[in-house]
Amino acid sequence: MTQPSPAPVVEMRGISIEFPGVKALDGVDFRMFPGEVHSLMGENGAGKSTLIKALTGVYGIDAGVITLAGDEVSFTGPAQAQAAGISTVYQEVNLLPNLTVAENIMLGREPRRFGVVDWRRTRRRAAELLEGLNLEIDPNSLLGDHSLAIQQLVAIARAIDVQAKVLILDEPTSSLDADEVAELFRVIRSLKEQGVAILFVSHFLDQVYEICDRLTVLRNGKLVGEYLTDEILRIDLVQKMIGKELTALDELEQRARSSVAAVEGQDVSDPAFASARGLARRGAIAPFDLDIAPGEVVGLAGLLGSGRTELARLLGGIDRADQGTLVIDGRQTKLRTPRQAINRRVAYSSENRRSEGVVDELTVRDNIVLALQADRGWFRPIPKKRQEELAQSYIQALNIRPANPDALVRNLSGGNQQKVLLARWLAIAPHLLILDEPTRGIDIGAKAEIQKLVYSLAENGMSVLFISAELEEVLRLSHRIAVLRDRRIVADLVNDDLQVEALLALIADGGGDGDGGGGPEDPDDGPGGATTDAPPEPSVPPGGTEPDPTPDSTIDLSGARR
Amino acid sequence: MSSIQATDLTGASLGTRVGSGIRSVLTSPKYGPVLVTAVLFAAVFVVGGIRYEGFFSGQVFLNLLVDNAYLIVLAVGMSFVILTGGIDLSVGAVVALSTIIAASLLQSGWSPGVVIPLILVLTSVLGLAVGLMIHVFQVQPFIATLAAMFLARGLCYVISKDSISITDPAFVALAVTRIPLGGGLSITPSVIIALVVVLVAVVVLHYTRLGRTVYALGGSEQSGRLMGLPVARTKVLVYVISGFCSGLAGVLFSFYTLSGYSLTAVGTELDAIAAVVIGGTLLTGGYGFVLGSVLGVLVLGVIQTLITFEGTLSSWWTKIFIGGLLLVFIILQKVLTARRR
Fold first, then answer.
1. How confident is the model at residue A216 (pLDDT cuts 50, 70, 90)?
2. Confidence of residue A162 (pLDDT cuts 50, 70, 90)
3. Domains: count for chain B
4. Residue A1 lies in a domain
């Protein structure tokens, strides 16, 4: 191959796993070499975790061969994989804070003498393992007294005690700060020198480029390719992960452009509906500035884990900001609960449609009136007749299928569930609608309908914060785009003839030269650069080119106001 | 008294050196509450010694053990359960059931050599049933043991509504025998049995994988499972242990009262829980020591003794003191665990 390397310690060939209705993995090849850090890359649903679970024996494989050190293996459970030398450290530390470090490393494998645990040898063994990781902590201290990073390293110590040939680190850095990450990387490097093959999964590109020797990119359950980290540019990597042909930009975008161009020319005095200054939450999102004007669609672009959702959750009152200020509708606000956000007419529609969105067991009608009813208070029930009207009008306006208000939401397709969720928030007539991945996992038709809806809502003066993993979609809909990377806004651009390539460059590393202006900027340094140059006016309709699919939506909105 | 404290510290530091500064020890959720209890016990004892003549004597201390031997055994079983994060409400009723089975079988001429093992087996099986209910059907321990409590209490009435006195010579002999310790001090066989139970429990909890898994369960059941520990087996086993201890406590109680009665030991499960909590075991599991629970029983006992010596106070004051203490200890635990988070 690309470099003279020893035989792979793990080789997976033609792995396919099928779940009912979904091909989670389709003929994927994957290999790991001793003494090498290998990163598995891909967006949500690419099949990374499925592949890991296939390797660790959590899932059985439907087709393909797994060989470990040359022998074909088929594990029926994680315990077996562990015994064979494949250890996994999970994203959340799965250890026991109430026991000592030594016990956490050795529990279940303590050396025993005459049937009782030999504490002296147990502690000595644990100390040896910690020393092997250059960790200077007291094995007798309680695990819970240490930082998450140390706990993670202890988990690694436990993992390598089982004579690991292969160590899988699934998102080990997601809750660590920079120093802690450095500590972890030091350990990874020393394990590497000892010849352990390490699988490192992370959403942080910088970290991947810092620590990994080899990358395997998956997309939609298929193998995109295996690359040496040194030989692939970030921008190419991101392109391969997102998987778009970057040639022709479609028609809709052109229309969006024209609408933006129109906006650009307008009066800039109109105040933003919501405006954040230095808003931040530790461990979730670095301080950011963001303005959203009435009638403006602001898109958030960035990879999974870049802080898109975290930002949105602050604005939606789901999580509390721990610093910075937020002004909504001219009044400074501290959002502590979603309820408060709703009172300020800010609605957050979660990316987790099923767990944080629709209520499966309720009917379409119940789901639609839910937020409005909560807003009114439960002692003022919405009359049955009014509920019926609301449900009917939204079913029509959003083209929800089946058009039956009494259908259980669980029986609807993903796209229709999303529409029900949208209807719920539209019913409370929000002024700012935050849509987190509204089009994920739904079919093309429904996707287009939702996109058109977003358009017409903005036309009618609603502010929309739009999050999507699909850059094309973000480009198509947004008047302005904030680019996020590693939990901070690295650029805030007016969508004026922006190219996907420019966005990709910004997403990959702030060093790219976005042609839309406003390159990488430090989110801490006062008002963001690009945000100041044009808070756009309510958008002018994108010309007659756009047939408005929702003629009734405005009526519904006004009708639903309290 | 000082000997108890010393034993406690050794127990507490099994597998760990205390060393690193009194402050960090006092604020650790592991040692803090136990040490506070130890100090409390010493303080109450000293106060009693200063106020009342004859309080500060070895026999007063030994009588704490004599009077509370059954409660010590109960608290040991309860410690296992609470360490896993569970609770066992059935123990008081099981004690009553044990006394009444003992009394009625002895009355009909059975030998104590058969009756006692039979009781231990029966109560262990009851514990097994409870444990299986909790594990297999995912019933809350509170509910499962509540059901067992009603079952056991109800069974008492099926066997006899009235108090049955025990006249079996061997049983009576065990009950009244005093083992001299020299210097005019003496204890009963019950105390020996209770101390053996404590010793075994310490060894099991600190020196066996079963014991460590009990702590692991209290820390995080999910983590324990991912670490490949025998979670299911251990979870069931702690209720068997608690059942066994309840049976044994019932036997010791019948030595103490020489009778069996359906209405006896009402609310004793709560005394046991109180002792365990005052002894520094976290109700959510994962932290605590059996020796702490023993200390908890002794604190309850010494308060009772103090009130007896006072003479003018009703024994209900014991309850008031215990109530106050419990509150203080639960708040203390909250503070200590919150600080650590």
1. very high
2. low
3. 1
4. no
Domain of residue A536: give its range: 251-345+429-545
Q: Which residues of chain A make contact with B209, given a CB cutoff of 8 A?
A: 108, 110, 112, 117
Chain mean position to CA A84? 33
Q: What is the pLDDT of residues B251-306, one digit of tens each?
A: 999 988 888 888 888 889 999 999 998 888 888 888 889 999 999 999 888 888 88
- Overall domain count for chain A: 3
- Which helix (H) or strand (E) segment holds residue A201: the answer is strand A197-201
CATH code where residue A504 lies? 3.40.50.300
A158 in contact with chain B, both atoms CB, cutoff 8 A: yes
Q: With contacts defined as CB-CB under 8 Å, which chain A residues touch B21?
A: none
- Reported as a single tens digit per residue, the pLDDT across B73-99 is 999 999 999 999 999 999 999 999 999
Most confident of A470-484, B176-190, B237-251: B237-251
CA-CA distance, A43 to A282, in Å (whole number)? 24
Beta carbons of A94 and B220 less than 8 Å apart: yes
Chain B: nearest CA to A159, how far in angstroms? 10
Q: Helix, strand, coil % (nearest 5) of chain A?
A: 40, 25, 40
Do A17 and A58 share a domain, yes or no? yes
Inter-chain CB proximity B228 and A108 less than 8 Å? yes
Answer for the pair B278, B87: CB distance below 8 angstroms, yes or no.
no
In the structure encoding, which two tokens stand for residue A113, read together? Answer: 């003498």
Contacts of A142 in chain B (CB under 8 A): 28, 30
Nearest Cβ partner for A117 among B29, B209, B340: B209
Q: Half-sphere exposure (CA, 13 Å, Cβ side) for A420? A: 32
Asked if A147 reaches chain B (Cβ–Cβ under 8 Å), the answer is: no
Which CATH number covers residue B251?
1.10.3470
Nearest to B261 by CA among B167, B122, B166: B166
Closest CA to B212 of A264, A413, A200, A98: A98
Residue A539 has pLDDT above 60, yes or no: no
Q: Does A7 touch chain B (CB under 8 A)?
A: no
CA dist., res. A199 & res. A191, Å (int): 12
A216: its two tokens: 């395997």
**A82 to chain B: which residues are within 8 Å by CB?**
228
Residues A272 and A398 grouped into a single domain: no
Closest C-alpha to A498, from A482, A473, A480, A516 = A516
- Whether residue A355 lies inside any domain: the answer is no
Q: Which domain holds residue B167?
A: 2-340
Same domain assignment for residues A19 and A53: yes
Structural domain contains residue A3: no
Averaged confidence pLDDT in chain B:
84
Identify residue A380 by its one-letter amino acid code: R
Query: Which residues in chain A have Cβ-Cβ distances shorter than 8 Å to B207?
Result: 116-117, 119
Q: Which residues pair with A166 in a beta bridge?
A: A86, A197
Share of chain B above pLDDT 90, in %: 41
Task: Please check whether residues A424 and A436 belong to one and the same domain.
Answer: no
Inter-residue contact B126 to B90 (CB < 8 Å): yes
pLDDT at A355: 80
Is B70 within 8 Å of B249 (Cβ atoms)? yes
Which residue among A405, A428, A451 closes a domain?
Answer: A428
Is A373 a member of any domain? yes
Contact B76, B293 (CB under 8 A): yes
Are A188 and A201 within one domain?
yes
Does residue A209 share a domain with residue A108?
A: yes
Same-domain check for residues A221 and A159? yes
User: Which of these three, A219, A242, A265, is where a domain ends?
Assistant: A242
What ipTM goes with this model? Answer: 0.78
Select from A119, A114, A118, A139 the least CA-distant residue to A127.
A139
A182 touches chain B (CB under 8 A): no
Are both A380 and A505 inside the same structural domain?
A: no
Distance from CA of A93 to the nearest CA of B (A): 8
